Amino acid sequence: MSKGDNVVVLDFWASPFCARVKIALEEKGVPHVDNEEDLFGKKSELLLKSNPIHQKVPVFLHNDKPVLESGIIVSYIDQVWSSNPLLPADAYDLAQARFLADFIDKKVFDTGRSIWASNGEEREVGTRDFIEVLKHLEEALGEKDYFGGDVFGYVDIIAIPHSAWFLAYEKLGNFKVEDHSPKISAWIKRSLQRESVKKVLPDPEKVYQFVLHFRKISGLE
Amino acid sequence: MSKGDNVVVLDFWASPFCARVKIALEEKGVPHVDNEEDLFGKKSELLLKSNPIHQKVPVFLHNDKPVLESGIIVSYIDQVWSSNPLLPADAYDLAQARFLADFIDKKVFDTGRSIWASNGEEREVGTRDFIEVLKHLEEALGEKDYFGGDVFGYVDIIAIPHSAWFLAYEKLGNFKVEDHSPKISAWIKRSLQRESVKKVLPDPEKVYQFVLHFRKISGLE
Question: Where in the cell is it found (chains A, B) (predicted)?
Fold first, then answer.
């Protein structure tokens, strides 16, 4: 990389997937321009051109070349701006980090969604499923400060943005994350003290209001 | 790694995900023991202990330490047995390979399943969706011999095992892969000439019979 690098994130403020990319860039000290997309209106030409298959944010543009999928983008950033590595160097540690990131990708947002984008029994099932996911994460974290061990690393970056949605899940699912996963709660508080996380994550109350708005326009309220 | 390496794959003969791991091991010349799991009967204690969350094959055991998820396993194998690299070294090429592997993971087996595990309109939709996926892959392959370019690499290993199921998709979906994606057809023939692929992939006719058996016991026929 050089000083002339042009780094752009096609972004949506509430997206935990976009937040991963922005936190990784903050951790690496890479200046970037975040272009907010209007996901409920017309998507930008640049988004459609850069991600024709999924048409989703985040898109990461490095000197105009697109990199897609948040976990892949964070890995790319870690390889290109290689000081303060986020991914473990050891093959086995790396495979374990990737497995946990994959578990988070498959489970956290979707079980969360089944709480906030539903009602009645479906929401009850969603809440139970989400609490199960929390328990797996609690076990994976164990007694460590971070998923990366002593240092905030790849899995932490993958996981922490979801926490901005937890208030919405708690209010709509009528439970407390802390009651089911006290270590995860402590890890969230610890991570929120980091400059990168503090700077990037949206206010959970604002996310909750966004979810309520979404429920209203979707006919769920 | 050392000569004393103990390499075990918890396997299922028809699984394209297990085949990825076995092809990677063949490409690297790593001796391995494949333990066939009875997925319709009782899963082994070793499987349940090694993959408590998903309880799925493949599980890769390297000196008794489990590595999970086929794409992660292939990356692990490539890092540990590092001669003849499968993954691109360049960050941008790597991100593109990972994106395509992710697309294949999300789309190929599931759209295929919506052909063979359905009937009527659902199957018609599944067939159309699968042909769309083929067209994306045809475009991604372009004029190259392999997804990896001149050499058979990571994306080829991720993709080729699915081809053993294509006969079943064709017969049940009433279409020909070749009619929609001639370059993919040629790539399959080319890849099947490789020793690793030839040795690992099951006979498509046997997979088709397996699918028919599955349809019968599931009440679909």
Answer: Cytoplasm, Cytosol
Q: Do the chains contact at A95 and B76, CB–CB below 8 Å?
A: yes
Give A90 to chain B, closest Cα distance, Å.
9
Q: Evaluate whether A78 touches A25 at the Cβ level (below 8 Å).
A: no
Strands B7-11 and A65-68, by their bridges, are unpaired
Residue B185, token pair as written in the block: 């057809």
For residue B203, give Cα distances in angstroms to A43, A104, B32, B159, B198. Answer: 45, 35, 21, 16, 10
CB A167 within 8 A of CB A205: yes
Q: Name the pLDDT band for B2 (thresholds 50, 70, 90).
A: low
pTM of the model: 0.96
Q: Above 60 in pLDDT, residue B59?
A: yes
pLDDT tens figures, A37-52: 998 889 999 999 999 9
Q: Please give the helix or strand (H or E) that residue A67 lies within, else none.
A: strand A65-68
Instruction: Supply the ipTM of this predicted assembly.
Output: 0.95
Chain A residues touching chain B at CB-CB below 8 Å: 53, 62, 65, 67-69, 72-73, 75-76, 79-80, 91-92, 94-95, 98-99, 102-103, 136
In this complex, the residue of B53, B72, B103 whose CB is nearest that of residue A95 is: B72
Question: What domains are defined for chain B?
Answer: 7-80 (3.40.30.10), 91-218 (1.20.1050.10)
Residue-wise pLDDT for B114-169, tens only, equals 999 999 999 999 999 999 999 999 999 999 999 989 999 999 999 999 999 999 99
Distance CA B11, CA B34 (A): 6
Contact B67 A94 (CB under 8 A): no
